[in-house]
Design brief:
The protein is of the alpha/beta class. Helix content is about 35%, strand content about 15%. Among the domains are: about 115-160 and about 280-365, Ribosomal protein L1/L10, rRNA-binding domain (Ribulose 1,5 Bisphosphate Carboxylase/Oxygenase, 2-Layer Sandwich); about 180-265, Rossmann fold (3-Layer(aba) Sandwich), CATH 3.40.50. The chain is built from ten helices and eleven strands. The strands form three sheets. A six-stranded mixed sheet has the order 1-11-10-2-9-8. A hairpin with a 6-residue loop joins strand 8 (about 275) and strand 9 (about 280-290). The termini are far apart. Mean pLDDT is about 80; it is low at about 15-25. This is 50S ribosomal protein L1. Keywords: Coiled coil, Ribonucleoprotein, Ribosomal protein. It comes from Frankliniella occidentalis (Western flower thrips).
């Protein structure tokens, strides 16, 4: 009896509905002979268009909010992250020692006293003594100029991203790197001959444009491509073939003295700044200035040349000191010595002031 009543109740909503669609479709065996029956109307047709659109927008908004929500970082993970950031910031060879006092003796703990500041030649001589044949016997160890840079610009949120180039040192030494291959573009035949005499691997005129287009010359075969200013505008058709090696005044690959350019890139030393991920204001570079068995005076001259080259990257109209710290480091040694180069910086400023005054006089004449 109960089974018949269940079937009747299941049939009634569909019969009484004002729509032609069925409200519920359930198998007959679903309704058993239970004494208590629950009737649930299930809609099996789509919601209204406006309702669907509203729900879709709500779902998209919830998804966007979930995506933009900052993840909760557990305390132990946050502690590890802070420790990692602290390590990234301490990339300097000379951590901040302003809170420490001067050492009363020449033997002291470096972590609890200020670093002693040496004159440039004395710091170099210290490494020559350490690597002497009677000590560690490393006569060909490299001596490096260590520089820390302030990368600030006129805008507080912008910093220099690239400080790099090639500097020709007055006293040559073998830095242990392969000699670069150089291709030179210049119109005049005598300039091409001078470039070849200086050591260029190739020196071509206007015919070189077609040679690059035909594949007789390939930019991949050369480390550096340099050019005389007279021929630079005519190299536009092969800009895409040369790509990043295309001669550029800012990169120092365009000059009237092409022989000088060849010597610079053949025997020069690269200097490249390493950025600090945690402190974008700080830039660090180490540039080789000589070997232990060289004259200390020669290495001092090389150091001066490196400083002058790096100072050319100082942003204009910035009052901050560009080189904030200088030192000397060495290959095969963990020692480092902080040095005073204030006289080099002052000489550079005086020279710039003289040039500025001369330009003003010429302009007013």
């Amino acid at each position: 009896m109960n089974g018949n009543i269940g079937r009747l109740i299941c049939w009634l909503p569909g019969a009484l509905s004002i729509t032609s669609r069925s409200v519920q479709k359930l198998p007959l065996h679903f309704w058993g002979p239970s004494p208590a029956l629950t009737v649930v109307a299930v809609r099996n047709y789509a919601a209204r268009k406006g309702t669907r659109e509203r729900k879709r927008k709500v779902a998209l908004a919830n998804k966007a909010a979930k995506k933009n929500k900052e993840p909760v970082v557990p305390p132990h993970v946050k502690k590890l992250m802070l420790a990692k950031m602290k390590n990234l910031q301490n990339t300097s060879l000379f951590p901040d020692d302003s809170a420490f006092g001067e050492s009363p003796d020449n033997v002291y703990l470096r972590n609890t006293h200020k670093h002693k500041i040496y004159d440039l030649k004395s710091a170099i001589v210290n490494f020559q003594e350490v690597h002497h044949p009677t000590m560690f016997n490393n006569p060909t160890a490299l001596i490096n100029a260590y520089l820390e840079l302030d990368l600030s610009t006129k805008k507080k949120t912008q910093f220099l991203e690239d400080v790099s180039g090639v500097v020709e040192l007055p006293h040559f030494f073998e830095a242990g790197k392969p000699i670069k291959t150089v291709c030179v573009f210049c119109k005049e035949k005598n300039l091409c001959e001078e470039a070849i005499a200086a050591g260029a691997n190739a020196a071509v005129g206007l015919e070189g444009i077609k040679m690059f287009q035909d594949g007789a010359l390939d930019a991949e075969d050369y480390d550096v491509v340099v050019a005389h200013p007279d021929i630079l505008p005519e190299l536009a058709p092969i800009r895409g073939l040369i790509s990043k090696k295309f001669p550029n005044i800012k990169k120092g690959t365009v000059a009237f003295d092409v022989a000088m350019l060849v010597r610079k890139f053949k025997s020069g030393v690269d200097y490249v700044m390493s950025a600090n991920a945690a402190n974008p204001k700080l830039g660090i570079m180490q540039v080789p200035i000589g070997l232990v068995n060289m004259s200390a005076d020669h290495m001092v001259k090389n150091y001066q040349q490196v400083v002058e080259a790096v100072l050319t990257h100082k942003p204009p109209n910035v009052s901050n000191e560009f080189i904030t710290l200088a030192g000397v480091s060495s290959q095969y040694s963990t020692e480092r010595f902080k040095v005073d180069i204030s006289h080099l910086l002052e000489a550079k400023e005086d020279l710039e002031e003289e040039v500025k005054i001369k330009k003003e006089k010429v302009a007013s004449a």
